[in-house]
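Prompt: I keep going back and forth on a fold encoding question. Comparing notes only helps if you start from a blank page. Show me how you would write down a chain together with its backbone fold. Please set it down just below, with no commentary around it:
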Amino acid sequence: MRDYHINLFYSSEDRGYIADIPDLKSCSAFGETPEEALREVQVAKRAWLKSCRARKKPIPKPRYRPAIYAVSR
């Protein structure tokens, strides 16, 4: 199974790094370093998925892929 894509970027407004998972609505995390943001978004992902399971909501399949991975046909 493929895992979810994670976007990671620096936010000058927040003075830190933001990691988010586009396939999981509102699943994001903050860190002072890129590594911290990635660790925190993994925690957020586990909580997001656990909440879905508990409420018997459908879990989206990993679909999001940045444009750089698009294959020309």
Remarks:
- Strands lie at 7-11, 16-20, 28-31.
- The chain has a mean pLDDT of 91.
- The chain has one domain: 7-60.
